[in-house]
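Notes continue from the previous slide.

Worked example: a multi-chain complex. Inputs as given:
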Amino acid sequence: MYRTKQRHAILAVLSGNSSHPTAEQVYCRIRRQIPHISLATVYRNLKRLAEEGLILELSFPDEPNHYDPCTELHYHFRCDLCGWIYDLESSQVQIAHRLSSQGFSVRGQQAVFYGACASCQTK
Amino acid sequence: MYRTKQRHAILAVLSGNSSHPTAEQVYCRIRRQIPHISLATVYRNLKRLAEEGLILELSFPDEPNHYDPCTELHYHFRCDLCGWIYDLESSQVQIAHRLSSQGFSVRGQQAVFYGACASCQTK
DNA sequence: ATAGGTGCAAAATATTTGCTAGGGC
DNA sequence: GCCCTAGCAAATATTTTGCACCTAT
């Protein structure tokens, strides 16, 4: 597999922090090292890394996509006010209740699994 | 609160089925009853209904938003092949495992809560 | 050498907004 | 009548794509 410096740098930015950056944010950081990198390259690599299962693509309403280097099943909390995305413990069953006791005000939630359904697999 | 026939029709389409339609799909169905309705009106109403907490706005990668009349905490499974979005039981803790035994092939997952974090609430 | 990736610009997609006219209360 | 909403068109935002050139293997 092709291992370009662009792809390396993108993975490094993601792995290096827990900020769940957008494509634009990844692009800005990488320009320090690779000033001529194109935003399209960032998008292309992020999309591919997600398809390869190396990173997770997170979709929120009213938001560009965010990217997460942690591909384990885990939950997130997104603050409506500051936009920060917190990682949560997946072992907590009644997360919404616990969040309240920790000072988070929960307005909504969603949980999604992706894959192929039974009927499509038999086609 | 203003109760236009457009708003009513949009809510009716959503409540009447479990297909988690997109704005475009809602628009197509409503045109049968209100041929002159504008797509912008559909978008505006869906956005508002979501803000008011009457419906849920679901965001997926590579997909326009989908809308769900059920605002209770529950999980979804989206098939990569046919695009269908299944509703899942929220009481199942190890959903991913159960899905496998039911013939679903799980490629990825995400779970998100929305609201205001503790530090923003004290501002 | 060649397959595959990059950069740039343009296109495609999804969604929002400004404005005027019309409907609900 | 007044205010909010609809309809239309144009704008915006995000992401993808075509193509010529470059680079890793």
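Summary box: Chain B touches chain A through 49 residues (CB under 8 Å). Chain B is about 35% helix and 20% strand.
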